[in-house]
């Protein structure tokens, strides 16, 4: 599945949008585990926020426009609200300037002919920003996509392991849980979806996430 997704990344990178994300922007830092408000405005006349309507919001990670990998779905929002409150789970990734947010319309099809022929939805995206306070570690796919070194979050557990086997078990369990979470997010990009969407709607959102492995700056999305 991901082979076809990455093959279409070049096409996706040409996507233009009239929903322009103004927060976060390049240079911004977001603290994992703390509430944050994503904001956007309507620009241009081709597409309105009302046209975009109900949308899914996703978190991606990567080093540049060609390497973005979906991490998780953050929730849903109506584009006309011009903001979305979220708290990014610290366990889904590690510290660094690798992250972007993407807004994928549930109703509006992409306005680009090369995207519309695949029935991809309208997508907007943010600049790449930094996340701090993260406690997770990237799997191999994400390490390659971001160019990051694997975070060492086991310092405390390692020292505890010398004194207590329970601490060792907890440390291993936490690591396994985090790796499984990252692997799952890398493959599906839609863990954490607790909405009552139809399978067709979820499949469409899935396709959108992968198909839009686009650029970082002016993330229109």
From TrEMBL:
Chain ranges passing through the membrane? none
Q: What is the annotated signal peptide range for this record? A: 1-17
Q: Where is the composition biased (Acidic residues)?
A: 155-169
Q: Which GO biological process entries does UniProt record here?
A: (1->6)-beta-D-glucan biosynthetic process; cell wall biogenesis
- Record domain Yeast cell wall synthesis Kre9/Knh1-like N-terminal: where: 23-108
Question: Where are the annotated segments for Disordered?
Answer: 148-202
UniProt keyword Signal present: yes
- UniProt keyword Hydrolase, yes or no: no
Query: Where does this protein have coiled-coil stretches?
Result: none
InterPro entries linked to this entry: Kre9/Knh1, Kre9/Knh1-like_N
* Ranges of compositional bias, category Low complexity: 170-188
* UniProt keyword annotations, A-Z: Signal
UniProt name for this protein:
Yeast cell wall synthesis Kre9/Knh1-like N-terminal domain-containing protein
